[in-house]
Amino acid sequence: MIDRYIYIYRERDVCIIRVHVCVQIVGETITSLQDGIDYLSWTFLFRRLLVNPSYYDLKDTSAEGMNVFLSDLISNTVTDLEEAGCVEFQDDAILPTFLGMYIHVEHD
Known about the structure:
This protein is mainly alpha-helical. It has a single domain (2-106), classed as Orthogonal Bundle (Arc Repressor Mutant, subunit A), CATH 1.10.10.10. The chain has helices at residues 2-26, 33-40, 44-51, 63-83, 98-106, and strands at residues 87-90, 93-96. The protein has a two-stranded antiparallel ribbon with strand order 1-2. Helix 1 crosses helix 4 (63-83) and helix 1 crosses helix 5. The termini are far apart.
């Protein structure tokens, strides 16, 4: 039973992260994958990862392990946003689409 609730909360967190990253891409805070990693390292999520790594399936809490985890997280998030039509890649830059800008307006 508890596993069901943990799954629901993880899915909610993933949805929140997608919207939050999309808003930051529209605001040009995140323009590359490295910007995304840097940005996430300054969020409350980063602090939560250190306090409760098992909740996020974080196996290695070393600096290298955190970097790999954040890299995978931002890469998967941006890929999901690209598949949803919210962002697009041009060379190494991440750019918002009209749909991404609409999400930004709705959550601003």
